[in-house]
Amino acid sequence: MVPHFNERFMSSRESTCWTMIRAAAAGSSTHREELARRYLGVVRAYALARQEFRAALLEAVAFHQPGTPVELEEEAASLLKALS
User: Fold this and answer.
1) How many domains are there within the chain?
2) Contact in structure between 32 and 24 (CB atoms under 8 Å)
3) ∠ at Cα 42 (40, 43), nearest 5°?
4) Which residues span the domain enclosing 43?
5) Contact 34, 12 (CB under 8 A)
6) pTM of the predicted model, to two decimals?
């Protein structure tokens, strides 16, 4: 459950990241748009890096361990889970 948030508008300089996150979670469209504007690039970069890491991990598993594609995917998934 999202705690109650005072809907008073805060300028970008006054708001903290947690203030903005709470406001966005409470449904403030202004704060959701600002949160997306600020962090979309970071989220996209993280997702791309994770995808590239997974591909490299799968390649390393395939190199060091023979098996079917399904077995290799399972091994890579297991390693990713262990690293999380």
Assistant:
1) 1
2) yes
3) 65
4) 17-83
5) yes
6) 0.56
